[in-house]
Amino acid sequence: MDITDINALPSSTLKTNHFNEHYLYNVNRDSFSKLSASVIFAAEFKKTLFQEDSLYIIIGSDSGLLPKYIQEQGIPLGTRYLFIELEEVLEQLHQHHLLDSLDDEITCTTLADWQAQALDLKLKEYSFLRNIRLIKAICAQQASLIEYPELNWKVSEELQSLQFQLTSSLGTQTFLKRQIENIADNVLPIQLIENKYKDRTAIILAGGPSLTNLMPWVKQHRRQLIIFSVSRISRQLVNAGIEPDFVCSVDPAPINIDVSKEMFFFKNSTFIHAHHVDPALINQWAGRKLYFGNRFPWQTNANPKNINSVGPTVSNSALAAAHFAGCRRILLAGFDLCFTAEGITHAEGSDEAQSGPKYNSSLLEVKTYSGQMRTTEPEYYIALQNLGFQAEKIIAEHKSIINLAAEAAVAENITHIPPCDISFDDQLDSAQQNSLDIKELDIAELQAHYQLINKELNKAIYNLESIEKLAIKALKINSEMYTTEGTIENYQDKRKLDDIEKQLKRKYKRFSALVKSFGVRDFLRITTPYDNSDSWDAEKAKELGAVYYNAYQSASTTLQALFKGTLKRTQARIEELKENPDFAMLIEQWEKDKSFNRGKVWQKLHPQSKYMAAANREFAPLDLKFKEMLNTSNTAFKKITDHQSSLALLKTKALLLFKHHKLDKLKDLLNSLQYVSAAEATEKESYQHLISAYIAEQEHNTELALELHNKIISTENSPLLEESLLRVASISIQKNDHPNALLALKCLSQLSPIYLPFYAESAYLSGDYMQAIDSYTEYINFFPEDLVCQLKLTRLYMEIGVNDAAELMLDHILATDPDLTMAQKLKTEIKKGVSHLKPNINTRAK
Predict the structure, then answer these.
(1) Mapping DSSP to helix (H, G, I), strand (E, B) and coil, where does residue 53 land?
(2) Which sign, positive or negative, has the C-alpha torsion 439, 443, 448, 451?
(3) What pLDDT does 542 receive?
(4) What residues form DSSP beta bridges with 246?
(5) CA-to-CA distance for 15 and 183, rounded, in angstroms?
(6) Residue 488 CA to its chain's centroid (Å)
(7) Is the dihedral of CA 64, 66, 67, 69 positive or negative?
């Protein structure tokens, strides 16, 4: 079906079908002309639209028929529905009273208001439960109006961005786990660099593609710059002979070391990191390090005064550090927050650049300083917004922030100035002026630091053990306090539970909060976002009580194990302070933590030790493992980037761009194939043909499009055969070339049975009724529960006058669903002898 612009259609096209269903014809066309909407909805949505405790965000409302169908079926416990409609369509629906009398759990809105409505419907809570479903109504799937694909695209992008913000704030367990593991190594707070570089020029070096061309300028002006680099570009800096003053990292994921390991080649840099960074980085860093945030994840005087990192990217945190250090002017390089036209995401030399363009990225776009529109992704988009907020604070202090790259995304409050126009007032010597005057802790101070940590950890473990015991006691009471009839047998048990709850909320308040933060997802399952507590029976209350106290027990048990592990790590750190330590104990802990470079820390603490030779022998196997880690190129992260750049993903992206009429982006995608890896070069030609065919079709050159698609079809074992056959069928239908369309659909039906109904419909239109019957029958053999196709086959039997076969089909359908109105109606028609067209069933399409 062709996509049509809503503005090209009459403003009011209300139609009533044979089933007395009212709908807007410009929205749904003939979707409900032969079969009722309820039959189609049951086939399409019955298994997907009725889960409990879910928020369904639905693009389109099928002229108000879909929300009414949901209401008739009954709304599941704790579930809500948010329909997002085109503004013009929603106005017509209200005008014709097609959305009247809907339940409170069903809301209809527009693109402009959907986010506010979603938040009112507890989007945040449903996101925590991972129970948000984005669904397309029939009108959005068929896309008779071009606005529906655009609406789906925009809502999908905005929802993805919203969920990223919500889930990143919820990533409590991972972040807490890393923070706990890092407690002993979070020694010096970043608070110590406050205003250390007043009136200096800083530069933030991030990993965007523009960094490649800016690197020579950075090297030329190294002496005049305080360099804050993100850890992921350390490889490029080492290759360029540039050592930053500060190297920054915040990612808690284990793959962080894969992209950051070259930072260990720096000799004098200071490592700035989040308190929750991947432990493999700070455990093995022998130089000075400063941490963002709190050392302990609970309120205690043992937490020094400090500032928090700024997300969502490490680049935002690096900028926060430069601002806090008092720099008068901050330059940005590689801080692009968007991709190149071809989809390259990072600077030359990175794993991402070596893998090629990123083909699994979204269609979200931003404007660059050069005026171009470039692809980005939700995380970058949020970082761009945060960057604008950060810049606003910087310029409010009469300082400046400048992006050196014209290819970077435009951010509020940040100007673009090319590097050739940047001037410097001074010729300061970096060795004197860039050095950081912060004293590191000596052995005695470190001893006091670790003893303080031991004290706090033991206190935490004691409190968590007490919480675990209370949870176990509460679980026993909760399981025994109800009778078989579902009533509370002894209210003394209820009072005991109340007493336990008071202890958790008062006596163990701080650590109960920690337990809840750590196990937040389990605790959120106790109550649904839509409060149905009035309908709970005793059995439900018992079940939720078990969930609640199991969450307490599980989280407190896991936290105890983490704290005990950190306690052992802290004891190893104390052992490191000795000139003649228990090397076996140290190596056991370092092996467990994969801290293969930890021996460098001991050597730094004891440079004149008479046990150095013995230490070197003990550390030699670990040193070898560390070197192997540094030299490994086939990392887990590299495998991820290779996958994101695979041609299999390019197929999906090309189709999305084609559907959204992104002609310029299709041309950029075609250019991106120059970066295809050698391993996939053999398939490159087919993808070139496919994208070129899409471009030709967008430019209304259908003859060239068909020629290119036919080249793909002629290619043996082409991975794009299905895509090209679909376009050949579509173009042929538009050109009224039914024989070619029929041939394409026949080939498609041989690829997958899912295309058999389309082949049947095409055969029917061509007059080949027996082929249509055979195709429907074959499809039903594959999918015996598809009532829609069974009814279509019944209709076909009736039209050609084979009522006996039609009656057999109807008997079969009614045996499955005796209340199916459509089947009953057709049965009545046959009994009444309603006349039908009776073509010669032996007729075949020529």
Answers:
(1) coil
(2) positive
(3) 79
(4) 228, 270
(5) 68
(6) 45
(7) positive
**Interatomic CA distance for residues 346 and 337, integer angstroms:** 10
Which stretches of 606-720 are DSSP H helices?
Answer: 612-631, 636-644, 647-659, 663-672, 684-698, 702-714
DSSP tally for the chain: helices H, then strands E: 37, 17
CB atoms within 10 A of CB 491: 9
Give me the helices (H) in 356-440, please.
378-396, 430-433
Whole-number Å distance between alpha carbons of 479 and 542: 7
Tokens of 773: 């019957």
Q: Transcribe 110-143 into DSSP letters.
A: ETTTHHHHHHHTTHHHHHHTT-EEEEE-HHHHHT
Nearest C-alpha neighbor of 192 from the set 270, 252, 266, 248: 270
Strand partners, 349: none
pLDDT of residue 718: 87
- Strand 80-85 to 373-375 pairing: unpaired
Burial class (CB in 10 A: 0-12, 13-18, 19+), 840: exposed
- Quick one: pLDDT at residue 717? 85
pLDDT along the chain (846 residues), means of 10: 41 75 85 88 90 92 96 90 95 92 93 93 80 92 78 85 69 84 96 93 95 95 94 94 96 90 95 95 95 94 92 91 95 94 79 72 84 87 90 95 96 96 70 70 94 96 96 89 67 85 92 88 65 58 84 94 97 95 95 94 91 90 92 78 72 82 90 75 84 95 95 90 92 90 93 87 90 92 82 91 91 86 87 56 37
Compute the residue count for the chain. Answer: 846
Distances (CA, A) of 504 to 180, 459, 491, 556, 570: 22, 16, 20, 12, 28
Residues 6+ apart with CB under 8 A from 115: 158, 162
Instruction: Identify the DSSP state of 605.
Output: H
Residue 74 φ/ψ region, left for φ over 0, alpha for ψ in the -120 to 50 degree band, beta for the rest: left
Side chain identity at 795, as an amino acid letter? R
Structure tokens at 606: 């004891």
Amino acid in the structure at residue 414: I
* Strands (E) located in 315-437: 329-333, 365-367, 373-375, 400-403, 415-416
CB 545, CB 527: distance < 8 Å: no
Q: For residue 385, is it left (φ>0), alpha (ψ between -120 and 50) or beta?
A: alpha
Q: In what order do the strands lie in the sheet with 55-59?
A: 106-110, 80-85, 55-59, 132-136
Q: Which residues contact 263 (CB under 8 A, 6 or more apart)?
A: 231, 234, 247, 249, 269, 271, 281, 285
What is the C-alpha separation between 139 and 129, in angstroms, rounded?
29
Count of CB atoms situated within 10 Å of the CB of 837: 8
- Residue carrying structure tokens 């030399």: 349
Place of tokens 């493992």: 625
Q: What are the structure tokens assigned to 170, written together?
A: 């919820």
d(CA 837, CA 801): 7
Three state DSSP letters for 292-315 = ECCCCCCCCCCCCCCCCCCCCCHH
Contact (Cβ atoms closer than 8 angstroms) between residue 823 and residue 817: yes
pTM: 0.75
Give the helix ranges, DSSP H, for 735-820. Answer: 738-751, 756-765, 769-782, 787-799, 803-816
Identity of the amino acid at 246:
F
